[in-house]
Amino acid sequence: MKISRRSALKLGAASLALPAPAIAQADSRPTVTVAVQNISTSNTLEMLREQSNVGTRIFRNYVEPLVDTDWVGDMSLQPGLATAWERVDDRTVDFTLRQGVRFHNGDAFTADDVAFSFGPDRMWGGGAKEVPTAVVQGARRIFPGFERIEVLGPHRVRVVNSVPDIVLEGRMARTAAVIANRRAFMAAPSWMEWARKPVGTGPYSIAEYRPDQMLTLDAFDAHWQGRPPIRRLRFAEVPEVASRVNMLVSGEAQFASDIPPDQIERIASDPRFEVAGGPINNTRYLVFNQAHPVLANPLIRRAMSHSIDREAIVAALWGGRTTVPRGLQWEFYADMYLADVEVPKFDPAEARRLLREAGYRGEAIPYRCLNNYYTNQTATAQINVEGWRAVGLNVELQMVENWGQIQAGDKTSRGVHDWSAAAAVNDPSIQMSGTWGRAGAPWLREQYRNEEFGTLADELETSMDRPRRRIVWRRMLEIIEREDPGYVVLHRNANFTAKRRDIAWRAAQSFVMDFRASNWGA
Amino acid sequence: MIRFLGSRLLRAAITIIMVVTFAFIVLRLSGDPAQIIMGADAPPEAVDAFRTAWGLDQPVLLQYFHYFGAILQGDLGRSMRDGRDAIVLVAERIPATLALTIPALIIKLGLGIPAGITAALHRNSFIDRAVMLLAVAGFTVPSFVLGLLLVLVFAVQLGWLPSGGQESWRHAILPIITMGVGGAAVLARFTRSAMLEVLGQPYIRTASAKGVPWRAVVWGHALPNAAIPTVTIVGFMVGSLIAGAVVVESVFSWPGVGRLLVVAVANRDLAVVQCILLLVAATMVTANLVVDLLYGLLDPRLRNQPKRATGAA
């Protein structure tokens, strides 16, 4: 069928003559409400500022990076706003940009927007707007060796690092690497106003954001993947678990996130609902402070590691719905995943032997613990303390209220605390070298320092020799998990989302909630 | 009268200064906002940069004087988390909170006082026992339990009302009832005991003996004299209009001052917490001042003897 210019104009005029309700009725896509515990910890939607689990949940719906991740699949890197990429050398990658992509304000996506997104105006400070310190510091942490972006053409850019980086492509998949619209950024009266309504290319545009209340997204029908399946997507902030479940049961929400394991069976017993999710790319662990006089002795730390019955924790508190990983690594590390590594086994006899060897005399070890910042955190801490008591360790559980109190006081006063580690890229260098290496917070705080480990962490970060990197990685795990423990892996974190059973939707292996057509009704 | 008012205003000012000082000290002793806001894995130099940017690296005493000086100039500080003026953030949330607390106060007064009077006038009858049974139940059930029960019945089972959020007037019904019921129960108990005490006084018997109709005895003699303890309680309720819905706002995801306070405390957003506490203190102090003045109106003896009124307050 051939459409002439005149008939097209007639069609356009006819559609304008339609009353608004008639047009609205033509869109039969649903409005979906997701009840979440928290929309954003920083009250912004700018992912350079909102580096958090809850930010990870929402970002993919309104902004996109050059390199995408198969969140509901195998976590592999996928073409995103870049259709292809090519290694030029150890420090350089060229990206071919997707054509025909539009921002929510109608602007065409070009190489200039990529350069802007990684430029001083938005990322490094000193540009047109006053950027918060947290943004600049976060960017430095996530892109430690970033040097520059070269625009090679309207749809081609070159990313140059200052040092060799085997995971440069992976860094371009990070949540902080999403592409923003230059014109909208510049037009915003302040950074905060931009950060409350960033303009990206995602399948949904931000209609309204009311901090601590509601994020409303509307379908962006000009999205390069086609019309999104949901007309209006709302994230409602509902702090109480019971209230989130009530919203689901009463039909006000179609999804309720952050469901504790002990609520799963009750929700799933109603035939209208089910709970999706399971282990994610996040591991719960305990971290030691070497500066504490007792914990300075690695034998004590090793004894603590052998006194924890991880399988019992998983069975008792998680109903077996998560797993004990093979150290601080994930299967999607692919050729860097060491399938034969294990965490130190639960062995009270060995723990007692190590304590005797260390000459431990029952000195107190403080364990600062937040009240269920992590799911099941307090119960897990209590189990751990009893396990330590059983082998003769005197660990004092100190409940505190916030991270400031965990880090408070003289460095020798801090003993053990809880933490979690997430990996979004299929290589250990970002997570391990970045967090535990010489530039990581534990090293800088003198909480964990091991010269051999530090050197290996540097090598893992910059080496391009894959066989050598596997050897380095194995040795790093051996040091930090067995010889001179910096932490004790407990279990993989799990994330559960209650939802209506009649909605076909898959949970990701992360906190990401994917509402694209590829994950809706499939 | 001027002396009376002056002493009240001076006391109010001292109370507010004490609240401000206490909040300042407690907040600074209970966690480093830089570490909380920057996150657990923030490198030390980032945390230090944050401290410098917000003046947290200065001695606490100096911070206090800066803070206090700014308050005197009407500057309540900026939110570390949001970047905007704390007073703007708080002012944005006040209408939402008042949308719950004012109707709830009306329910408290409309239900609690008549119920208490009725119970007292029918002492030891079935009505009295029924009213007190309900009052004790309403008084003892925590608001978060009552709220969840109401949601279970009216939102989940019957589907008549929404369970949370702030999208229409229907969303306000359950939180208002939750707050109103508890307060009405308190008022009913206080009103009943105050009325019983007054009804046992000789002047009530005298009025009845003189042939004054019972209705006139109750309205003209019993109620005004029983009003003082009730007015005291109502004063507290009015004083808590601004931040008296912390639990209910959390249960019903209602974006008011209470929710803002919870989030601000968790994040040690100092300026916002201090601003809310200052506002609450000012409201409470004002309500107390009004109550003091009402004592004088209700009881002429107190008007003529300000020292006794002080004791009653």
UniProtKB/TrEMBL annotation, chain A:
It is found in: Periplasm. Keywords: Signal. The keyword Membrane does not apply. Residues 77-431 form the Solute-binding protein family domain. The keyword Signal applies. It comes from the Bacteria. Belongs to the bacterial solute-binding protein 5 family. This is ABC transporter substrate-binding protein. The lineage of its organism: Bacteria, Pseudomonadati, Pseudomonadota, Alphaproteobacteria, Acetobacterales.
TrEMBL record, chain B:
It is a multi-pass membrane protein. Keywords: Cell membrane, Membrane, Transmembrane, Transmembrane helix, Transport. It is found in: Cell membrane. Residues 94-295 form the ABC transmembrane type-1 domain. The keyword ATP-binding does not apply. It comes from the Bacteria. The keyword Glycosyltransferase does not apply. InterPro entries: BPD_transp_1_N, MetI-like, MetI-like_sf. CDD domains: TM_PBP2. The chain crosses the membrane at residues 12-31, 98-121, 133-160, 172-190, 231-251, 271-298. Belongs to the binding-protein-dependent transport system permease family. Gene3D superfamilies: MetI-like (1.10.3720.10). This is ABC transporter permease. It comes from Falsiroseomonas frigidaquae. PROSITE patterns: ABC_TM1.
